[in-house]
Design goal:
By secondary structure, the protein is an alpha+beta fold. The protein has seven helices and twelve strands. It has a three-stranded parallel sheet with strand order 3-8-9, covered by helices on one side. Strands 10-11-12 form a three-stranded antiparallel sheet, with no helix packed on it. Helix 4 crosses helix 6. It starts with a helix and ends with a helix.
């Protein structure tokens, strides 16, 4: 609203009854190099594509040459040495009571797993073998190696965005209509269309708001998630326009500021909740 005259924002936005309305030509598309954590990553897989199995703990791919858990357990049983009997009677008793050690078992079907945990109070994962490992269509919290977070999984966030928009509480005061996604593109071979549909809209009772979902794998994202890669804690922000600026962050904090000085407003990010709320108040006063 403030910079519409200088930057030709009227090409995309218009004032209508004191609120900002986006024009029909403006659409939003989401690209993800990997299926969003949570419900979208839960789907059946066969032993032929078992390399797409996700780790139970943090949702990272299991290497192709790894041994499934059920095979490891069987191998452990078969490799245990049973003490040799001392007499004939004991041999006969052992023959009657002991069963042969099972051979390695292979599951013909398994479940592609997610590290996202079910929210408290919801139906939990049974964690049985094969297709009964996960419970589908339930809300989950984001996976991670540290303390458990209260933030919902990415699949649940996209479900919410599809129903009420992704504009958030502050922009909803200014915008006349919700901001919704037009499509989602998953750039990964680990992809299942039915699980994405379930995660993004069909599991919601009023599922008349559908999304276009595409799978594109010809050009792989060079920095996509991999077992040998660790996410970098550094990030940067660049804002274009007449008052463009850049900021660098380390673990979410502005570079050069320690945790002991977070009470200083100069240490706050320009897009932190506090500054965004203040910016919204300024706009509302106009």
């Amino acid at each position: 609203m403030k910079c519409s005259e200088k930057e030709n924002a009227s090409s995309y936005f218009a004032l209508e009854e004191g609120k900002v309305k986006m024009k029909v030509c403006l659409k939003f598309h989401l690209y993800s190099s990997y299926p969003p954590c949570g419900d979208a990553t839960i789907f059946p897989i066969s032993k032929h594509n078992s390399h797409n199995i996700l780790s139970e703990d943090v949702g990272t791919p299991v290497p192709e040459n790894s041994t499934p858990v059920i095979e490891k357990q069987a191998h452990k049983i078969s490799s245990n040495n049973i003490e040799a009997p001392h007499d004939k009677t004991q041999t006969e008793n052992n023959t009657e009571t002991l069963e042969p050690c099972p051979k390695k078992m292979k599951l013909s079907e398994d479940t592609n797993r997610t590290g996202a945990k079910c929210v408290e109070g919801a139906q939990i994962d049974p964690k049985r073998d094969g297709l009964e490992y996960h419970t589908v269509s339930v809300l989950r919290t984001k996976p991670g190696r540290g303390d458990r977070t209260l933030s919902l999984s990415c699949s649940d966030k996209i479900l919410k965005w599809n129903q009420i928009g992704m504009q958030g509480s502050l922009l909803s005061i200014i915008l006349s209509e919700p901001v919704t996604l037009s499509s989602v593109i998953i750039g990964s071979e680990c992809f299942n269309l039915e699980s994405c549909k379930r995660a993004f809209f069909t599991r919601y009772p009023d599922n008349n708001k559908h999304l276009e979902i595409h799978n594109y794998t010809q050009a792989e994202f060079v920095d996509q998630r991999h077992v040998d890669k660790v996410p970098c804690p550094d990030s940067s922000l660049f804002v274009a326009g007449s008052q463009s600026f850049r900021e660098a962050y380390v673990t979410g904090l502005r570079q050069g500021w320690s945790k002991k000085k977070l009470d200083n407003p100069k240490s706050w990010s320009s897009v932190c909740q506090r500054k965004l709320a203040a910016r919204t108040q300024d706009i509302m006063k106009m």
